[in-house]
Design a protein that fits this description.
Blueprint: H1 3-11, E1 14-16, H2 25-33, E2 37-40, H3 48-62, E3 67-70, E4 72-74, E5 77-78, H4 92-98, H5 101-117, E6 122-123, H6 148-164, E7 168-174, E8 190-191, H7 195-211, E9 216-219, E10 223-224, H8 237-246, E11 252-254, H9 261-264, H10 269-279, E12 284-286, H11 290-305, H12 311-324, H13 334-337, H14 344-351
Parallel strand pairs: 1-2, 1-12, 2-3, 3-6, 6-7, 7-9, 8-10, 9-11
Antiparallel strand pairs: 4-5
Helix pairs in contact: 1-11, 5-6, 6-7, 10-11
């Protein structure tokens, strides 16, 4: 396939972000080009009604299934908060300390119901990194536990709850960001662990999530020296084989944002965008600049045209993205959104999670 058809097929592998509280001309052009999804950030949010109206307009303008995603973990990573009309949850570490699998399922279902009320189809949650490094600047209390078994058990329950409410879950960050001492938004972390350590600590939660049927897994921009000392997980065929063959995950692998410094400052886009697809990532996140988003699509298309990316690999990735698109719902009704948010049941459920101990350092174990 060549021309417009190929361009749409390649664009369908991308999920993009944009600036503004209403659909920008730039994001509408990317939707016309064929991107499968749009990711929302705090910069896109005023309140519940505005979010529902924004999502509805994006979906109507697409005229086809469009996946709208967001990071709504709880704690310090939540784009939708009480002032905008949503139920706020404590950090996932607080949930992990309960050890309560049924409660984790209910929390996932709460997140799913509130996201579905405003038309959001995918939550980049749960975090299933194991928090083994007290100096970790980015994970900390976002992790459910320092115990891999607890992370896997409660993370799987939370994912099942989300998906029972009709919202695709996304386990992150494969194969594990919990022991880094650098933030991949700013640096390129390296982990020196041997493969047997990864199999014992980092991989079990992802195996548990794969068994639970999680819809997606997000890759980490972290170099795992034992597997591939040159490239981060997002660009590494060796790491992606670990996801498929040892973790047993066969769903949609999603990259973390290719504009993050861990990738953008170390690997040119000419290498990163086609390289992620070649490595085995299926869906690429490019969250900020439209010129980078269009160029990334162009670069992947060029790699297909010159044979570096085989037609079979493109078809495989598109098939896995199509599996995610089953979660893409219709435009929501802004007038009905708030009635389904911060309900008495939701607030009571949030209150069942005991707060973390006073003085808990959110970036410490």
């Amino acid at each position: 396939m060549t021309g417009a058809g190929l361009d749409r097929d390649v664009a369908s592998l991308f999920c993009v972000g944009f600036q503004g509280k209403t659909p920008s001309p730039e994001v509408l052009e990317l939707i016309r080009r064929g991107v499968h999804g749009v990711v929302l950030f705090s910069r896109n949010v005023d309140d519940a009604e505005q979010v529902a109206a924004l999502v509805g307009e994006l979906k109507r303008r697409a005229g086809r299934p469009l996946l709208v995603a967001i990071d709504q973990e709880g704690g310090r990573v939540a784009r939708l908060r009480a002032p905008q009309g949503f139920t706020e949850l404590p950090p996932m570490r607080a949930l992990g300390e309960t050890g309560d699998e049924a409660l984790a399922h209910e929390v996932g279902a709460l997140l799913g119901r509130e996201l579905r009320a405003v038309g959001i189809d995918q939550d980049y949650a749960p975090v299933v990194d194991v928090d083994t490094n007290p100096a970790n600047p980015v994970i900390g209390d976002r992790s459910l536990s320092r115990d891999p078994a607890v992370v896997g058990r409660l993370g799987a329950a939370l994912a099942r709850g989300l998906q029972a409410a009709g919202v695709a879950a996304c386990a992150k960050h494969f194969p594990g960001h919990g022991d880094t001492s650098q933030d991949s938004h700013k640096d390129l972390p390296h982990l020196p662990h041997r493969l047997d350590r990864l199999r014992e600590v980092e991989l079990p939660p992802f195996r548990a999530l794969a068994r639970a049927g999680v819809a997606a897994v997000m890759t980490a921009h972290v170099v795992f020296d034992a597997l591939d000392p040159r490239r981060p997980a997002t660009l590494s065929p060796e790491v992606m084989r670990l996801l498929r063959e040892e973790a047993g995950f066969q769903g949609c692998a999603v990259s973390d944002d290719l504009e993050m410094s861990a990738v953008a400052q170390h690997f040119p886009l000419e290498e990163a965008a086609p390289g992620a697809i070649l490595a085995g990532v299926d869906a690429l996140l490019v969250c900020h600049r439209p010129e980078v988003q269009h160029r990334a699509i162009d670069l992947v298309r060029g790699a297909v045209e010159d044979g570096r990316i085989a037609a079979a690999r493109l078809a495989e990735a598109r098939g896995r993205v199509a599996g995610l698109l089953r979660y893409a719902g219709p435009p929501p009704d802004p007038a009905r959104a708030r009635a389904r948010l911060r309900t008495p049941d939701h607030l009571a459920l949030a209150a069942r999670i005991p707060p973390l101990a006073a003085g808990h350092d959110p970036t410490a174990a």
